[in-house]
Amino acid sequence: MNQQLTILFPNSISVHIKREDLIHPFVSGNKFRKLKYNLLQAKEENQETLLTFGGAFSNHIAAVAFAGKEKGFKTIGIIRGDELRTKILENPTLLFAQNCGMQLEFISREAYRLKNEISFLENLKQKFGSFYLIPEGGTNALAIKGCQEILTQKDAEFDYICCPIGTGGTISGIINSVLPHQKVLGFPALKGDFLKAEICNFAQNENWELITDYHFGGYGKVNNELIGFINQFYEDNQIPLDPIYTGKMVFGVIDLIHKNYFPAQSKILLIHTGGIQGIQGMNMKLRNKQLPTINVNV
Fold first, then answer.
1. Structure pTM?
2. Is 260 exposed, middle or buried (0-12, 13-18, 19+ CB in 10 A)?
């Protein structure tokens, strides 16, 4: 569903947001897309267990845990930060995953950096037995295939497709499915443009660009301006935005509109990649720092 924003923009620019966050109550947005074909492949390989990686408030961990339960898989989550072992009850994402039946394995940040090493994966197989591996964030060739289905024929009217970026999988699928007259703008949640090389591994078209000015200090970083924007946006449009990905992208697009980045009469489509489950954890951190919180009904 594409929902037009109620905000009146200058230069007759129109903005719609694709509500991928409404696909599924627990496996929403790009996580649903990324897991679709991976789960089918796991079934085809007769695998009974899904194993993946993530951090303390990972949308991916929550999605794999629920999807695995729903589709009859055992799930194992390798969690970055062994200090979290005793804090599951304080962490809404990890508690949700555990309640879905996911087995949580906590490892140090040093060990976590080895997650792509063959020897590290072999040790996991020795410990847990056979499993279907889903990479951190869910990005692989099958995930790209799923993300290529985000855009539909009805989206041909848009000039710009804007997407937040974590690991680069979602935007790669979108790049592969856009029409020649469309341009894709990616808004990384992390500092720097190092994701460009990763995207190039999957992207087949060249009509895309990374906008690297709206990470708000880096992954998981927020400030009062962003929180205020998310709250006001929800009040104006009744659309919840997560503070890690989509909130920063929407902030960036609106800022660019007012800076005349887009030509007059441009039609812009924003991809809402979900991640709403992370708001609860972010609000815990904000309260601990005695900062304003995100006020949305989810």
1. 0.91
2. exposed
Dihedrals phi, psi of 186, to nearest 5 degrees: -105, 140
Burial degree of 2 (CB within 10 A; 0-12, 13-18, 19+): middle
Q: For residue 149, give Cα distances in angstroms to 17, 30, 125, 134, 178.
A: 16, 10, 33, 19, 10
Query: How many Å from the N-terminal Cα to the C-terminal Cα in the chain?
Result: 18
287: part of which helix (H) or strand (E)?
A: helix 278-288
Rounded to 10°, the helix 169-177/29-44 angle is: 90
Which residues, 6+ apart, have CB-to-CB distance to 218 below 8 Å?
Answer: 190, 191
Per-residue confidence (pLDDT) for residue 298, from 0 to 100: 67
Q: Nearest-CA neighbor of 136 among 32, 20, 282, 31?
A: 31
Q: Which residues of 155-175 are buried (b: 16+ CB within 10 A; e: fewer)?
A: beebbbbbbbbbbbbbbbbbb
Q: Does 297 have pLDDT greater than 90?
A: no
Total Cβ atoms within 10 A of residue 152: 10
Chain segment 155-205, per-residue pLDDT in tens: 999 999 999 998 899 999 999 999 999 999 999 998 877 788 889 888 888
SS3 state at 99: helix
Strand, coil or helix: 100: coil
